[in-house]
Amino acid sequence: MAGVGPMTQDWEPVVIRKRAPNAAAKRDEKTVNAARRSGADIESVRKYERVPTELKKAIMQARGEKKLTQSQLAQLINEKPQVIQEYESGKAIPNQQILSKLERALAAKLRGKK
Questions:
Q1: What are the boundaries of each domain within the chain?
Q2: Which letter, b or e, does each residue of 11-21 get, where b requires 16 or more Cβ atoms within 10 Å of its Cβ?
Q3: Residues ≥6 apart with Cβ < 8 Å to 79
Q4: The domain over range 53-106 is classified in CATH as 3.40.50.2300
Q5: Residues 27, 33: Cα–Cα separation, whole Å
Q6: Is this model's pTM higher than 0.70 or not?
Q7: What is the pLDDT of residue 2?
Q8: Residue of 71, 66, 94 lying closest to 81 (CA atoms)
Q9: What is residue 1's predicted lDDT score, i.e. its pLDDT?
Q10: What's the CA dihedral at 30, 32, 35, 36 to 10 degrees?
């Protein structure tokens, strides 16, 4: 049927786009830097709840009395050494389960010491 009648398209163009970035991709360092360069508003939220100074000192003191290293204490309570390090440096967000494990392992009261 070549050459018979005018030639027309009878389909619609299809546009394929990338999906919108998910929450994790929006926090990606590369994405944040690109947003800064373009002048977009960047919202940053900090976690405010941290280990109190009294608790940090109590953990370090009790661990010192038991003559345990951070990694030995972590092994006793089945946690990573980084967890103990974060608690003693004050960077951890307090977790009641971990605190109770620490109290048992160190045989010391860490909560409600006022």
A1: 53-106
A2: eeeeeeeeeee
A3: 98, 101
A4: no
A5: 10
A6: no
A7: 59
A8: 71
A9: 54
A10: -110
